[in-house]
Amino acid sequence: MDFGYTSEQEALRQEVIDWIAENMTAEIFAEMKGGEGGGETRQRGRGSLVSELFKKIGAKGWLGISWPKKYGGQDGDRLSQYIVEEEFARVGIQVGGGGSGSPVIMAAGTEEQKDYFIPRLISGEISLAFGFTEPQAGADLGSLQCRAVKDGDEWVINGQKMYTSAAHSATHFYLMARTDTNAPKHRGISIFLFPMDTPGITVRPLWTIQSDPVAPLGTTYGTARTNETFLENVRVPATALLGEENMGWYVGAMGLNLDRVGASRYLISVRRDEDIINWVKENKLGDFSPADDPAIMDKLAELWIEAQVCRLMTVRSMSMIEHDETFTYEGSAEKVWAPEHGVRTAEAITQMLGPYTQLMNGSHAAIADGLYSHQLMGAFQSGINHGSVQVMRDQISRRGLGMPRG
To answer: Which CATH class is domain 7-127?
Structure first.
């Protein structure tokens, strides 16, 4: 089996790399560094330089390559999309549709929801804030208490959400709420899609450890701000329901699984491997050259091999989806291996570079603007975000190995 790319695919990658070098100007990077977002800022407001860049990317046919044309895609193959998505993700631009909520809307949405949301999510015209976690319900979403009550042709929602990181900038809410209090905890939950400017929504900032100093652009989990969001008698139409009523936990789990597939999610865990290898090739710490240290080079080789496992797991998942195969535990397996690898990489870099990795953004002696220092602060979050690795291991054991529920 050949795990490499064809000459045509490599040519596509080089075309994208060259295009990015020509079109990603210093002014665009400066705009992306601005605002409250910190290391993961995406300036997409109408008329912004980044929004204009997206128009150019769309003109090249690179937005949502594998999506159907009727929803704003190109009817292309998943691997081509992966290649394009990977190179843009390296400079902080998301072009694939993965991680945006589009896959679950495609899988569970009505035709009207698909027609409205998917083209706009792919183009970046709209974005979603994910309302999952609550003060008493983190990794165990079956314990959530945010309530949605049917009132004629509307739902009335009351409750609180925590860590809704995009709530202050997103255009729409992707919200899980309890719709049947008498059902078992993993039933009686539904998902709703509705605008963030719906009356009754209050968003309050929660400033993170990355806010002072702000993490450099490209830091994984480097956002300076997340939010707590309150919903008081928020009325949404019945058409806001995504999937079947009371089946939201299962729809949400499917959506998280699908959103884990793609280059953006893959690079969250392996981008620092690439960064540290390139840094070691070209830099010294005073008179010390890390590239001359056998222990460091051996560790870098080990991490690189683990990163290739991440890539192969991602490509396997994409291939399964491409060929309409049953996709059950594979996304969960990626969610265990890749984040834990990212943590190992962050810790190993700290050991390789020593005290210099404690210097944060703004310090005159900081390495790569403090990237590795800020990365270490955010790395452990990856084992919780988007589903904890403990919950993922349970899903692997039951869905992949057929083991009974504990």
So the answer is: mainly alpha
